[in-house]
Amino acid sequence: MQNAISISRLSKEYDTGFKALKGIDLDIRRGEILALLGPNGAGKTTLISIICGIVNPTSGTVTVEGHDIIKDFRAARELIGLVPQELHTDAFESVWATVSYSRGLFGKKPDPALVEKVLKDLSLYDKKDSQILALSGGMKRRVMIAKALAHEPKILFLDEPTAGVDVELRKDMWQLVRGLRENGVTIILTTHYIEEAEEIADRVGVINKGELLLVDDKNELMRKLGKKELTLDLNEALDGLPDTLARYELGIEDGGQRLVYRYDTQAERTGIGSLLADLNRAGVTVKDINTEQSSLEEIFVRLVEESR
Amino acid sequence: MNFEAVKAIYFFEMARMKRTILQSVVSPVLSTSLYFIVFGAAIGSRIEEIDGVQYGAFIVPGLMMLTLLQNSISNASFGIYFPKFTGTIYEVLSAPLSFLEIVLGYVGAAATKSLILGLIILATAHLFVPIEIRHPFWMVFFLVLTAVTFSLFGFIIGIWADNFEKLQLIPLLVVTPLVFLGGSFYSIEMLPEFWQKVTLANPVLYLISGFRWSFYETADVSVSVSIAMIAFFLALCLGLVWWIFKTGYRLKA
């Protein structure tokens, strides 16, 4: 698969001396949904701003479908739509005027039918003549998305798209994002809500302090870093563990009523079979069994902590 | 060349003028009319002719220049400052636009607005005093070049300003005094010799003098010097704008 965006050794140091990005290497595949996870101030927005031409890089290169973002900025930027994190709107303009303006800025001839479709997709059409300042926050967010889609971009950046957004809009947005992907649009979104990445992304990248800690297929990532927990509810509480069970490093909870076994799903032997056999041999009877996979959130927290 | 984008910015800006027609058009026309009533009719009738031109008519080119300068600067500075202030500038920066195209859109719209305004003032003045334009070509030449140059200057101020106070600072504290002392309302021959020499250091004098010459063939300084001066300002502003975009000054981190 060819890359939509290739980022190589990208660094950014602001005039204040703050190093926002430290040598990022990242390939974004055509047609995927990539979620960039990271705490506030990790460098997510700086990364997006450089690719979109709002911030100058200090060093490194970025190409968009093979076009260098500086030498060949026109070809690169034409392909990109950006929905920034903050709600920057022309308060006094009408929805229709501001969305049409965005299309013009990207060099596309006016196309009222397309603008109408974009507005309808975002449930904005009945507000098309309203002044933006009269709209609610959620509606303004929709306007920002409509502006970004007005020139039919091949790559869409959503910077913290669900910050301050209600459940309904969030649902609409994910539906829209999936629809766009079906049409071949590459989508990069940043978030610090892990559930979002877990719900929608194909791949997940984790950024902290200007460094890309990892980027991997979401399921792969969860499998690789995911530990599973086996919980055993016992019929009778145990006072202590028999010596034969020591090697499993079991956790005892609920006053001896529950045993917790952590194992690696990737290991050749998970040890579950022998654990159950040893329990049986020790005369411990099990009432119920439950397994749970650690979430992306736990993986993320662990990664960020390790990088401190 | 991304013509669609230049068009988009241009008409977006012009639409803003339409929306704020009271502030953009009515208010300058009203204040100019007041100048005519006070200086033209009330006081002007007691002032003798200057170089064979009735005083009320004599001040018309100066008043047009006053409006042109002030409005070019305020239109263009506000036009680029406002998106910076609201944050919508992100879109212009992320669009496939060269800096030349951004300038063409914003400065073109600002210059058009002040040109329209200048012509409205000329028409208004025509109601009060008899006006003749001996050199229409040069009149338009000075009008257009001044509008463009000072719109560029306004654009620079709008980029430089990082708060509303700075936005007003230069127009209020520098440009307005220069225009008033640059011979809008008088010929510098009326001044004592020392102040005449001081006034020669005021760049606005050359604009007003050249512009007035295109009306009445009366000038404080030679026309060629006036033309050279406006060309020099234009080059200076173009150079500054070029530098701003080359370095990303106050636009890009």
Q: Which value, in Å, is the CA radius of gyration of chain B?
A: 19 Å
Multimer state:
heterodimer
By CATH, the architecture of the largest domain in chain A is named 3-Layer(aba) Sandwich
CATH superfamily of the largest domain in chain A: P-loop containing nucleotide triphosphate hydrolases
Low-confidence stretches of chain B: none
What is the string of SSEs of chain B from the N terminus onward? HHHHHHHHHH
Strands in their spatial order, largest beta sheet of chain A: 6-7-8-3-9-10
Count of helical stretches of chain B: 10
Main sheet overview of chain A: 6 strands, mixed
Instruction: Give the termini distance of chain A in whole angstroms.
Output: 34 Å
Coarse shape of chain B = globular
The greatest interface here is: A-B, 35 and 27 residues
Average pLDDT of chain A, rounded to a whole number, is 87
Helical stretch count of chain A? 10
Provide structural commentary.
The complex is a heterodimer of chains A (308) and B (253). By secondary structure, chain A is of the alpha/beta class. Chain A folds into two domains: 3-223, P-loop containing nucleotide triphosphate hydrolases (Rossmann fold, 3-Layer(aba) Sandwich); 227-293, Alpha-Beta Plaits (2-Layer Sandwich), CATH 3.30.70. Chain A has helices spanning 44-52, 73-78, 95-105, 112-121, 137-149, 167-182, 194-200, 218-225, 272-281, 296-306, and strands spanning 3-13, 19-29, 33-37, 59-64, 67-68, 80-83, 155-159, 186-191, 203-208, 211-217, 227-234, 251-253, 258-264, 286-293. In chain A, the strands form three sheets. Chain A has a six-stranded mixed beta sheet, sandwiched between helices. In chain A, helix 3 runs parallel beside helix 5 (137-149). The two termini of chain A are 34 Å apart. The mean pLDDT of chain A is 87. Chain B has ten helices and no strands. Chain B has helices spanning 3-19, 21-43, 55-86, 89-94, 99-128, 136-160, 164-180, 193-199, 203-216, 223-247. Chain B has one domain (3-247). The longest helix of chain B is centred in the first third of the chain and has 32 residues, at 55-86. Chain B has 253 residues and is mainly α. In chain B, helix 5 (99-128) crosses helix 6 (136-160), helix 6 (136-160) runs antiparallel to helix 9 and helix 6 runs parallel beside helix 10 (223-247). At the A-B interface, helix 2 and helix 3 of A face helix 1 and helix 4 of B.
